[in-house]
Amino acid sequence: MNALVISDLRRVYRAHTGVIKRKVKEVVAVDGISFEVGEGELFGMLGPNGAGKTTTVKMLTTLLIPTGGRASVLGYDIVKDESKVREHIGFIFGGERGLYWRLSGYDNLRYFASLYRVDPAVSKTRIPYLLDLVGLSGRGDEKVEGYSRGMKQRLHVARTLLHNPDVLFLDEPTIGLDPVGARELRQVVRNLQAENKTILLTTHYMFEADALCDRIAVIDKGKIVALDTPAGLKKHVQDLSVIEIEVFGLRSEALEKIRTESYVDTVSLENRDQRQALMIHSPRGAEAVPDIMAQLDGHRVGRVSVREPTLEDAYIRLVGGTHE
Amino acid sequence: MRKFVFNLRLFFESARLSYIALFRWLRPGTYAASKIIMPLADIMFFTFIGIYANGVEAAPFYVIGNAMHLAAINGIYGVTMSVGGDRWEGTLPYLFGVPGSRLFTFLGRAFFHLLDGSLNVIIGLLLGWLIWQLDFSQANLLLLGAAIATATIATCGMGLALGALGLVTVNIMFINNLFFFLLLIFAGANVPIEQFPNWMQTISQFIPLTRSIAAARLIINGAHLADVQSMLLVELLIGAAYALLGFIIFRTFEYQARLRGTLEAI
Asked: Is residue A315 part of a domain?
């Protein structure tokens, strides 16, 4: 049985502008997406900012009513059976907020345990277990306002596991964490996967999705542009090589010229202080380098490298390399 | 039955933890000072003005009126912050994403403010006894306790309504201040209601404290249960009506936020 069944799910936001002549502007955040997630599967959603990932999670966690389509969690409709859905899910939205900062970590968990109707006898043993699971044992009596960002994120994970939910929604859980904190949190996610939890994870980080997810949906402008295993997604770019060129003060006309070359599949540009990292996907691989360098004539160029594509390259190809 | 027990637990956890979340930053000394100095300043200000205007024999009128009005500190400010605070803490999505009873969560936010608000009034009356020798010799103290409880329940009911409004508007402190002083004026703490123009008297009939202040004055002057029971009952109903209104606003906000995607909009 599938834990999640999403069928043609759609969400349109309506924004009003103007005071006297009020205009309604519609923004399509999720545009008819469909997918299924099996029980015990760790399913990833990748996409740029504003792609519709968080909106999808909000709908599946009953916090937002869809404007079209249907979705069910463990067979319960997210609109009609919202209470049943809430009993079986846990969720986290990235960031520090969402905890009572003036309460201790322990009291936060205690309060949410009562909100999730956890038996007091169970919560007495479960709260220390969860604090230990997320590496906060010994810190549970401290006020949350004194916690680091990573500790708050881990407390969120403990909070969402209080009622031992079958399905977890983790919306960018490692956002803003330092590398060590992010790695610890990823280990917690792996442990949950080992407990056969169904997990829907959204993230910006390709390596995170690559390392954790069984399958990944790449979402852009509210639509799913690809859905496959990490290995399957990489096949989208196996015919390409990635040429990375460090360049200083790249002019836009040069960039546009490279973009239109027949041997160039996608181009993306990342600003890094004074320099820019130009990334070009090309089927010609190293052979294309002299032609590209000719286009960059007059620019100061640093390191040049050619490598095999990764999941990130597949992602860039799928979303068009337009998100810089 | 099991569900009811869970809901009862939720009520008390919601009560205890929302209260701690609000006041834990205060050190015991600061908290105690706020319990003495603020009521003292409030009562002294209005009582001395009253004595200056009407003579020292008018002191009990002002002491009782302003001591009862102290219930509004918790009823209005405390409850509003406990209900509306979830918006500022960013906990609303997590609160709305759980299966727990909304009604018990909502009402629980007011519970400790009932006790704390009653304590405010008692301290205010004791200060009146210490400074202006407020005479309790004729008073049925149990009945006076009932009047105090009624005043705090009714103001907490209004606080629940304002707190729910705090989920919708960013100007909740302005609204709190407005209602705190409206109660001070319209409930008859410092001016006999009979001296108000008709339109003000009409407003006085629909707000908390009007009847409990009047009842407290009567009880301290020796009135019995039969003299004040209808006043206290009507005030309880007014408090319940405000609490119900608050819960309706709360649930409407939750539904509209899910419908329009405004749960985290501040």
From this structure: no
In a domain, A31, yes or no: yes
Q: Which of B25, B93, B100 sits opposite A102 (nearest CB)?
A: B25
Mean pLDDT, range B84-107, rounded to an integer: 85
Mutation target vs A (from B4, B7, B98; most A CBs, 10 A cutoff)? B98
* Total number of domains constituting chain A: 2
pLDDT of B65 reads 97
> Nearest Cα to A211, choosing from A245, A174, A244?
A174
Is A202 a member of any domain? yes
Write out chain A residues lying below 8 Å of B91, CB-based: 97-100
Distances (CA, A) of B130 to B124, B133, B134, B190: 10, 6, 7, 20
pLDDT at B266 over 70: no
Mark yes or no for CB contact B10/A55 under 8 Å. Answer: no
* Closest approach of A61 to chain B, Cα-based (Å): 7
* Residue A111's CATH number: 3.40.50.300
What whole-number distance in Å separates Cα of residue B109 and Cα of residue B96? 15
CATH number of the domain residue A286 falls in = 3.30.70.260
Q: Find the helix or strand (DSSP H, E) in which A24 lies.
A: strand A23-38
Residue A272, pLDDT score: 77
Percentage of residues in chain B having pLDDT higher than 70: 97
Subunit contact A112:B98, Cβ cutoff 8 A? yes
Same-domain check for residues A165 and A33: yes
Closest CA to B11 of B101, B113, B108: B108
Do the beta carbons of residue B41 and residue B127 sit within 8 Å? no
Our CA-based measurement puts residue B16 at a distance from the nearest CA of chain A, in whole angstroms, of 9
| B89 contacts A97? CB cut-off 8 A | yes
| pLDDT in the model for residue B25 | 61
Q: How far apart are CA A108 and CA A113, in angstroms?
A: 9
- Residues A226 and A243 placed together within one structural domain of the fold: no
Note down the domain range covering A127. Answer: 2-231
For residues A145 and A255, membership in a common domain is answered with no
Predicted complex: ipTM over 0.85: no
Q: Is it the case that residue A220 has pLDDT exceeding 60?
A: yes
Residues A163 and A279 in one domain: no
Assess whether A105 and A133 both reside in one domain. Answer: yes
Which residues of chain A does B89 touch, with a Cβ-Cβ cutoff of 8 Å?
97-101
Task: Find which of A224-233, A261-270, B32-41 is predicted with most confidence, using mean pLDDT.
Answer: A224-233
Residue B91 to residue A111, Cβ atoms within 8 A: no
- B10: which chain A residues are within 8 Å (Cβ-Cβ)? 114-115, 117
